Each structure stands twice: as structure tokens, then as C-alpha cells.
């Protein structure tokens, strides 16, 4: 399996288009045509992880945090990043990053964090904005199934819980072929009145080109009439954070102990008080921006990381706010990521090994 084959599959389940604007995801170092051998997975790329990959004959490293984020002016051994990039190039190791796209999918960082903590009925905390479009196309009745099938096959009207979603309304279409036209129905110069179906479906923006191409290919008309309308609907399939409920309400002390145990955190910082905790919001890594949304959705507690003193203070009366550590709230995704990558490899008959790094890449220590 080549890097580009892997990307094609992986980016269906973690589309780069849902990453934050300004994030840096995808292949950061390497060549699309390189054939994948073994793979090492880590939250961060450190020199230890790069050396581990070389030792394990892994020519691909997949990380959550992008090593290259801010523009580099030089790639030399005088900087930590420069030294690692040089090592990767010299040892022919490819680097791929899945960052906020991995945060925003329902199998990613936040849903995994929710599952590890035992939450049920988990939903996206902050659904993605401006990612949906509606496409309508006018089709002679007997061709509707063909066109709909073609559009569904590349992701039109396809969601996590439902697929083949569409709406169909009947109507009358009219047209007259002029000079040089080659009408599928009727003759040049004669007005045609045809029973047509208006087929509509929702399409995520990053699937739009594929869906339109498939639709045009399957449609019998020379000139196809269709509308594409961007929607303001929120897309609850994707987004940052997650919210769910504990099976039984917990008291604050046992709840904080549970977080420490499940995430392997030696300590957590918190503010606020809650007598009974059942509804819990989570956001792995820096999730301060989502606390308002957790409060609005009546969460009793929110678990995230990188919180400031004044943020604790601001929410003290509103929610039990827990900072469990950036690494601690994210590393739980690594086994799930390994599983997804392994499934893609198997589909491509690639049987190289997939390793989760043996190094803790957490730069923060608690004494
Ligand atoms: Zn992070």
C-alpha cells in the first residue's frame, strides 16, 4: 500500500476538510508514492519516537499533533523541529498528522475519551458549522433510481446512522433544443414537456465534487439542471467535544478519582462544586472555548485541559470544571487510531506491523 492509497481511505473516515482552518493535517514529510512498511503511532513526534520508528523498520509515523505547524525559516539541527525533520528525511520516514480532524469525528479523540469514562448516549458537543450543502437535480422519472444510486455511492445523503437519504418531488420540466443541441428526449426546435422528479439530498462539502460528477455521469440529459445550495444547518455528525451521561450519578470525589484512574493522570486540577454528576462534557486537549457550550447543554461537569486560572474562576459557580492534562485526555485515542489504521491496511492486503510508540511523549511531569 502506498501513502496515497492510505490517505485516500483514511481521509474518508477523518476528512481533512473538518479540521480547523489554519490547522496543518495530512502528509507533512514524505512522498505520496512511498510503499508503506511498518507504522508507528504517537500523539507527538519526538526524536525518541523517530528513532523508534527507524529501529522497528517503520517508514510511516502517524501523529495527532502536527510537528510542522508554524512556518519554518530553516531546517537545521539548531532547532528541535529542524533536527527531527532532517532525521526523517535522512531515514526515509514519512510523517502524517491527523489533528483536529481526529478530534472532530465520532470515533476520534473526544468520543473515545467519553467512552473511556463510561459515558452513554454520547453526542457531539459543538457540531460543525457551514459544512452541509443541499443538491437538487431534475431527472426524468425512469432514471431517478440510477442517478440517486450513483450519488449515494460516493457519499451523497450518507450519514453515520442513515444512508440513502433523499427527497423526491414530482413536477413538469420543459425545454426546447436549439441549434447544435442533441436532446435525449424530443427533437430540435420542438418544446418538450416531460414528467420529472426533483431529487434532493444533503451532501457534505468535501464530497460535493464527487457527488456532482457521479450525478452528471448517471444523468441522461445533455444539459443537466441542478441546484447546489450551501446550508447554515449545523452538522451534528462532526464537531469538537462530546457530551454524554454517566449510567448512575456520582459524587464529586469518586468522579475525580475515576477520571484519574481511567486517564492515567496522577493529579487533576478543578474548580466548582457539584453534589451529583451525571451529565458530562469532554474535550481532549485545549477545550476552554467549549465550556460555554457545555454549560448551555446543562453538563454537571466538563473535562478538558490547558485551563487558565481565570477560566477556572469564571466557571466556578456554573460547572465542575476539570483539567485532567493535555496528554492524559488525548492519549486514549491511540489504540482506536491503531485499530482504524489496521482495518485500512487489511483492506489493502497490507500486513506490515502497526506499533503504538513505547515512549510517553508527555512533556509535562507532576512531582
Ligand atoms: Zn492536543
Percent helix: 25-40%
Give the strand tally.
Answer: 15
User: What is the overall pLDDT average?
Assistant: 95
Specify Rg, calculated over alpha carbons.
Answer: 25 Å
CATH superfamily of the largest domain: NIF3 (NGG1p interacting factor 3)-like
Distance between the ends: 45 Å
Q: Which band does the percent of strand residues land in?
A: 25-35%
* Bound ligands: zinc ion
The geometry reads as globular
Going across the biggest sheet, name each strand in turn: 5-10-12-13-14-11
Count, helices: 12
Descriptive tags:
alpha/beta, Udp-n-acetylmuramoylalanyl-d-glutamate--2,6- Diaminopimelate Ligase, Chain: A, domain 1, Alpha-Beta Plaits, 3 domains, 6-stranded mixed sheet, 12 helices, binds zinc ion
Question: Can you offer a commentary on this structure?
Answer:
This protein is an alpha/beta fold and 367 residues long. It has three domains: 3-102 and 332-356, 3-Layer(aba) Sandwich (Udp-n-acetylmuramoylalanyl-d-glutamate--2,6- Diaminopimelate Ligase, Chain: A, domain 1), CATH 3.40.1390.30; 109-128 and 238-324, Udp-n-acetylmuramoylalanyl-d-glutamate--2,6- Diaminopimelate Ligase, Chain: A, domain 1 (3-Layer(aba) Sandwich), CATH 3.40.1390.30; 132-233, Alpha-Beta Plaits, CATH 3.30.70. It is 29% helix and 29% strand. It has twelve helices and 15 strands. The protein has helices at residues 3-13, 47-55, 80-90, 100-103, 109-116, 144-153, 208-218, 252-263, 291-296, 309-314, 326-330, 334-347; strands spanning 26-29, 38-42, 58-63, 94-97, 119-128, 132-140, 167-176, 191-204, 226-230, 235-250, 269-271, 277-286, 301-305, 320-323, 354-356. A six-stranded mixed β-sheet has the order 5-10-12-13-14-11. Strands 1-4-3-2-15 form a five-stranded mixed β-sheet, with helices on both faces. Helix 6 packs antiparallel against helix 7. The longest helix is centred in the C-terminal third of the chain and has 14 residues, at 334-347. The chain is globular and about 85 Å long. The model has no long low-confidence stretch (mean pLDDT 95). Zinc ion binds at residues 65, 285, 326, 330. Residues 65, 285, 326, 330 line the site of zinc ion (ZN).
Amino acid at each position: 500500500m502506498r501513502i496515497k492509497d492510505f490517505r485516500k481511505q483514511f481521509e474518508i473516515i477523518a476528512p481533512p476538510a473538518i479540521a480547523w482552518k489554519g490547522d496543518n493535517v495530512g502528509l507533512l514529510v514524505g512522498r505520496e508514492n512511498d510503499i508503506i512498511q511498518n507504522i508507528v503511532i504517537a500523539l507527538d513526534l519526538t526524536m525518541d519516537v523517530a528513532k523508534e520508528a527507524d529501529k522497528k523498520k517503520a517508514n510511516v509515523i502517524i501523529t495527532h499533533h502536527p510537528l510542522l505547524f508554524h512556518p519554518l525559516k530553516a531546517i537545521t539541527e539548531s532547532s528541535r523541529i529542524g533536527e527531527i525533520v532532517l532525521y526523517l528525511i535522512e531515514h526515509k520516514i514519512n510523517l502524517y498528522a491527523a489533528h483536529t480532524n481526529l478530534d472532530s469525528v465520532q470515533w476520534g479523540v473526544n468520543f473515545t475519551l467519553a467512552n473511556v469514562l463510561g459515558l452513554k448516549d454520547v453526542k457531539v458537543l459543538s457540531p460543525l458549522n457551514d459544512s452541509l450543502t443541499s443538491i437538487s437535480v431534475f431527472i426524468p422519472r425512469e432514471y431517478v433510481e440510477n442517478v440517486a444510486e450513483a450519488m449515494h455511492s460516493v457519499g451523497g445523503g450518507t450519514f453515520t446512522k442513515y444512508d440513502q437519504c433523499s427527497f423526491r418531488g414530482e413536477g413538469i420540466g420543459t425545454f426546447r433544443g436549439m441549434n447544435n443541441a442533441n436532446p435525449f428526449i424530443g427533437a430540435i426546435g420542438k418544446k418538450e414537456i416531460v414528467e420529472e422528479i426533483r431529487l434532493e439530498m444533503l451532501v457534505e462539502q468535501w464530497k460535493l465534487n464527487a457527488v456532482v460528477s457521479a450525478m452528471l455521469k448517471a444523468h441522461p440529459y445533455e444539459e443537466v439542471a441542478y441546484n447546489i445550495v450551501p446550508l447554515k444547518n449545523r452538522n451534528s455528525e462532526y464537531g469538537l467535544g462530546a457530551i454524554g451521561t454517566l449510567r448512575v450519578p456520582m459524587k464529586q470525589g469518586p468522579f475525580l478519582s475515576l477520571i484519574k484512574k481511567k486517564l492515567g493522570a496522577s493529579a487533576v486540577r478543578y474548580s466548582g462544586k457539584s453534589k451529583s454528576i451525571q451529565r458530562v462534557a469532554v474535550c481532549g486537549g485545549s477545550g476552554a472555548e467549549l465550556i460555554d457550550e457545555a454549560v448551555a447543554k446543562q453538563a454537571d461537569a466538563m473535562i478538558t485541559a490547558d485551563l487558565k486560572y481565570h477560566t477556572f474562576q469564571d466557571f466556578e459557580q456554573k460547572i465542575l470544571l476539570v483539567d485532567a492534562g493535555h496528554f492524559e485526555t488525548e492519549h486514549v485515542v491511540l489504540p482506536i487510531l491503531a485499530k482504524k489504521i489496521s482495518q485500512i491496511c487489511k483492506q489493502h492486503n497490507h500486513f506490515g506491523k502497526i506499533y503504538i510508540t513505547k515512549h510517553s511523549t508527555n512533556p509535562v511531569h507532576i512531582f
